[in-house]
Amino acid sequence: MSDLLRALAGETPERTPVWFMRQAGRSLPEYRELRVGTRMLDACLTPDLASEITLQPVRRHGVDAAVFFSDIVIPLRLAGVDVVIEPGRGPVFADPVRTAADVARITAIDPADLDGTAIAEAVRLTVAELGDTPLIGFAGAPFTLAAYLIEGGPSKEHLRARAMMHADPASWNALAGWLSRISRRFLEIQRDAGASVVQLFDSWAGSLSPTDYRTHIAPHSRAALEGIGLPSIHFGVGTGPFLADMRLDGIADAVGVDWRMPLDEAIRIVGDDVAVQGNIDPALLQAPWPVLEAHVRDVIERGRGAKGHVLNLGHGVPPETDPHQLTRIVQLAHGEL
Ligand code: CP3
């Protein structure tokens, strides 16, 4: 069994398994070269391109897992929703979903109808090349997707999405339930084509109060993951106040922790009977290696109290990162430095 799967099963392999959120992407010159002339979502839907981009960081850094090159909005695009990714900005929707009528219109699309052919093909090509290295499939959690869809694009406090939960709870539940089925379908396509772990990204959950998270969000995120049949990681940013809820009643095998809280403190909150993933501060990637090295050693040390630790960043790799810093972190985790 690979070290990643062992850690997710609660074991402590000799070498700490490590991968990086957003490892496939803009910090790599070989990625930027491949992407010239192709729009982000078109690249995701071109199987040989998506597969090659997924493999690049595995070859370069020797990480313990590949993460599938795609995007959280891809299943929406496959469902026929008009969405593009604007460089430097993020997902932008032509028709924001704001009223009960908007919700009724979009939820009439059956998630079972989305065409997963290109995704399945890209996953199969990738898994064939990876050998024993596991492929992590992923999806966006319902709240993070709703935060984009309701607003129509990126926003700071996701006010419209948080407002809908209270102003029109029936529409909110219909929309979040539909998004959870959309993301679930995306996970199933990746699973059926050979992914061996899944991660649910709730990047913007930190804008919620613990009560709103528990009442209006957690049941929908849980539905996206429950019974998927693969080890799962549930990640959010700024979720310290409700980190224990991120376990989703025991459905998640690992909880992702951002950089704001020391890992040992996070373990006290989530419990020492679940794996954790994290939590190198992405800002430290800009620091001289000795400073970053001390930080990474500290994270590994604090992770020892967990029932399984997967080393990662507290959020994605910033585009301006020197890739050599990432390679050195892998070497350190593997006891090669
Ligand atoms: O992690 C990986 O390497 C796998 C691929 C991956 C991408 N997006 C590729 C991508 C994953 C797992 C995601 C998830 C994703 N997408 C999230 C959750 C993770 C997180 O970082 O919080 C979110 C919120 C999105 C939505 C999204 N897509 C944003 C905010 C952006 C950035 C826009 C920008 O240019 O600043 C994207 C675009 C995106 N997704 C890029 C990549 C490599 C950059 C596209 C480019 O090269 O221009």
From TrEMBL:
<keyword id="KW-0627">Porphyrin biosynthesis</keyword>
<dbReference type="InterPro" id="IPR038071">
    <property type="entry name" value="UROD/MetE-like_sf"/>
</dbReference>
<keyword id="KW-0210">Decarboxylase</keyword>
<dbReference type="Pfam" id="PF01208">
    <property type="entry name" value="URO-D"/>
</dbReference>
<keyword id="KW-0963">Cytoplasm</keyword>
<comment type="function">
    <text>Catalyzes the decarboxylation of four acetate groups of uroporphyrinogen-III to yield coproporphyrinogen-III.</text>
</comment>
<feature type="site" description="Transition state stabilizer">
    <location>
        <position position="71"/>
    </location>
</feature>
<dbReference type="InterPro" id="IPR006361">
    <property type="entry name" value="Uroporphyrinogen_deCO2ase_HemE"/>
</dbReference>
<feature type="binding site">
    <location>
        <position position="148"/>
    </location>
    <ligand>
        <name>substrate</name>
    </ligand>
</feature>
<feature type="binding site">
    <location>
        <begin position="22"/>
        <end position="26"/>
    </location>
    <ligand>
        <name>substrate</name>
    </ligand>
</feature>
<comment type="subunit">
    <text>Homodimer.</text>
</comment>
<protein>
    <recommendedName>
        <fullName>Uroporphyrinogen decarboxylase</fullName>
        <ecNumber>4.1.1.37</ecNumber>
    </recommendedName>
</protein>
<dbReference type="GO" id="GO:0004853">
    <property type="term" value="F:uroporphyrinogen decarboxylase activity"/>
</dbReference>
<feature type="binding site">
    <location>
        <position position="315"/>
    </location>
    <ligand>
        <name>substrate</name>
    </ligand>
</feature>
<feature type="domain" description="Uroporphyrinogen decarboxylase (URO-D)">
    <location>
        <begin position="17"/>
        <end position="26"/>
    </location>
</feature>
<comment type="pathway">
    <text>Porphyrin-containing compound metabolism; protoporphyrin-IX biosynthesis; coproporphyrinogen-III from 5-aminolevulinate: step 4/4.</text>
</comment>
<feature type="binding site">
    <location>
        <position position="203"/>
    </location>
    <ligand>
        <name>substrate</name>
    </ligand>
</feature>
<feature type="domain" description="Uroporphyrinogen decarboxylase (URO-D)">
    <location>
        <begin position="136"/>
        <end position="152"/>
    </location>
</feature>
<dbReference type="InterPro" id="IPR000257">
    <property type="entry name" value="Uroporphyrinogen_deCOase"/>
</dbReference>
<feature type="binding site">
    <location>
        <position position="71"/>
    </location>
    <ligand>
        <name>substrate</name>
    </ligand>
</feature>
<keyword id="KW-0456">Lyase</keyword>
<comment type="similarity">
    <text>Belongs to the uroporphyrinogen decarboxylase family.</text>
</comment>
